Amino acid sequence: MTNQEWLYATKPTRGTLFLRTFLPYQMWRFLVLNLKMIGIIRRSHGGGE
Amino acid sequence: MSRIVVLGAGVSGHTAAAFLRRWLSKRDEVIVVSPQPTYNWIPSNIWVGVGLMGKEQVTFPLAPVYRKANIDFKQARAVALFPEGKGVDPQPLVEIEYTAPDRSGGHELVKYDYLINATGPKLNFDATPGLGPGKNSVSVCTADHAVEAAQLLAEKVERMRRGERQRFVIGVGHGGATCEGAAFEYVVNLEFELRARKVRDKADILFLTNEYEVGDFGVNGVHINRGGYVTPGRIFAESLFAERGIRWITKAHVRGVEPGLAHIETLDKGLGEVEFDMAMLLPPFTGVGIRAYGRDGTDRTSDLFAPNGFMKVDADYAKKPYREWRAKDWPRFYQSPAHKNLFAAGIAFAPPHPISEPHTNAEGLMISPAPPRTGMPSAMIGKAVARNIADMVSGSPGPAHAASMAEMGAACVASAGANPFTGTAASLTVFPIVPDFERYPEYGRDTDATFGEIGLAGHWIKILLHHLFLHKARMRPGWQWIPE
Ligand SMILES: Cc1cc2nc3c(=O)[nH]c(=O)nc-3n(C[C@H](O)[C@H](O)[C@H](O)COP(=O)(O)OP(=O)(O)OC[C@H]3O[C@@H](n4cnc5c(N)ncnc54)[C@H](O)[C@@H]3O)c2cc1C
Question: In B51-137, which ranges are continuous DSSP H helix?
């Protein structure tokens, strides 16, 4: 099975793939992502009220 | 004493009812009318649809929750509104038809002082011949649909284990469908599960979408600030597919589905056919078909509702070219212009126009996503409407708390495989949901707040959200502090 589009798609490097499930890094990202999401939620509430 | 009737116990209506009960006095009445006996945390239907969760993990009975919270629950569907009353009585009414087994089919006229229509979508499978459960494709829009999808998937896995190749077509089943994000989640979860069940090499997976590019998601895509470039979301979506060996067809309308065969039409390649062994295709949405009548019985449906059945609110519905669309066309208070005590929240309100640039085929059929109203805005709108009604009950002249989708952001976590150690999810934030090119001339959004990343942390957040939102919906201690 081939797909022309796959040739032109950006693919993650081995390093990127490794970091996606590397526990210490992901624990850090868990914190960062939560803060980013809370930021958006706050801003949305602030903008609306 | 005031009586507030909430139609629909989904994300939007349930949030509105819970906050109304909290903010109104004991003398005021809150009534919820909804046809299903259970609440469904719909985002987790994706995991039911791949066999990782049972129906009971994403649903719970509403009656005990409402009984405890002192909210009156009527298991019924709304069929007609009489916003000016009926005959000589000027008291506004809603006609409901019971669906509870003990009263099934019985009608009642329920009086209201304020009414919130949060009835969500009608799943319009009929728009495409042969589409949908009971016909030739499955869906994950309801928990029952998702259970059926999981059963079919299990059957296909068995075939693959016996050495048969199987073709999966996942996506949307009509050119005007919405909810591409859910289809996207399902296809990557399905691929992950096939790997987990060690049959991936026997599967051909195709994503079929009405989006102009993958990663559009009905919000005209997102531009993500990443690695020193502002990068279109398409790059990340295509990357995810290419990495997982998923093919994709964009700009597609499904003209019909036969057993094992979908007839499609794309904007760039015309007519075509796609064969499949399992197709999960989400339907387009319309309003649920509530009628509206004047006091003398004249049909006023077209005054209150847009032709697609969604309720008209304080938006600018004037038809204008795409380039003239403005963020301020979008509603802020979700109040009916015809009746000040009538509101629509969540998917039930009529959007003024699509968010993605519309494209049509030669016959004038739109092949581009309808605007999504995902969980976070639906809940925030429900809460803002509840706040405004509570204020109006206490004497405020009108609504003051706005919740425009052009002024709020969204945080989305799209599961890309469920496993506590090897799973991943794409975490996305956008601000605002509806692009505002007056405030952010280049992309319509604040690229500092628009963000995306794939990883295990996203999966943990998704699991956390599943439990938090079910806790909130069950109105368990502290529910009011969990953000929407
Ligand atoms: C498979 C899937 C996955 C999704 N995943 C995500 C996600 O990950 N994140 C996200 O943010 N959003 C997601 N969404 C979108 C999200 O589910 C919706 O945004 C949300 O459910 C909209 O809330 P609502 O209250 O407007 O409508 P609904 O949740 O659909 O609720 C409508 C309610 O009205 C009731 N009703 C219907 N007809 C009547 C009637 N005539 N009278 C009275 N009541 C009626 C229904 O029974 C229901 O209780 C997903 C959607 C799908 C289909």
Answer: 62-69
B429 touches chain A (CB under 8 A): yes
pTM of the model: 0.96
> Contact, B227 vs B235, CB < 8 A?
no
* ipTM entry: 0.91
Percentages helix, strand, coil for chain A (3-state, rounded to 5) are: 80, 0, 20
Q: Give the integer Cα–Cα distance in Å for B49 and A1.
A: 26
Dihedral sign (CA B456, B457, B463, B465):
negative
Which residue of B427, B462, B465, B481 is the best one to mutate when testing the A interface, meaning the one whose CB has the most A CBs within 10 A? B427
Q: Which residue has the tokens 């969760």?
A: B53
**B456 Cβ under 8 Å from any chain A Cβ:** yes
Give the long-range contacts of residues B21-27, CB within 8 A, separation 24 or more. B21/B69, B21/B70, B21/B71, B22/B480, B23/B386, B23/B387, B23/B390, B24/B390, B24/B393, B26/B70, B27/B1
**Interchain CB distance below 8 Å, B453 and A40:** no
CATH node for B3-123+285-358+371-393: 3.50.50.100
| pLDDT tens for each residue of chain B, 484 residues long | 999 999 999 999 999 999 999 999 999 999 999 999 999 999 999 999 999 999 999 999 999 999 999 999 999 999 999 999 999 999 999 999 999 999 999 999 999 999 999 999 999 999 999 999 999 999 999 999 999 999 999 999 999 999 999 999 999 999 999 999 999 999 999 999 999 999 999 999 999 999 999 999 999 999 998 888 999 999 999 999 999 999 999 999 999 999 999 999 999 999 999 999 999 999 999 999 999 999 999 999 999 999 999 999 999 999 999 999 999 999 999 999 999 999 999 999 999 999 999 999 988 999 999 999 999 999 999 999 999 999 999 999 999 999 999 999 998 998 998 899 999 999 999 999 999 999 999 999 999 888 899 999 999 999 999 999 999 999 999 999 998 8
Q: Count CB-CB contacts under 10 A for residue A45.
A: 17
Domain range summary for chain B, segments of one domain joined by + = 3-123+285-358+371-393
Answer yes or no: do B407 and A3 touch at CB < 8 A. Answer: no
Other C-beta atoms closer than 10 Å to the C-beta of B395 total 6
Size of interface A-B (CB pairs under 8 A): 107
Interface contact B451-A26, CB threshold 8 A: no
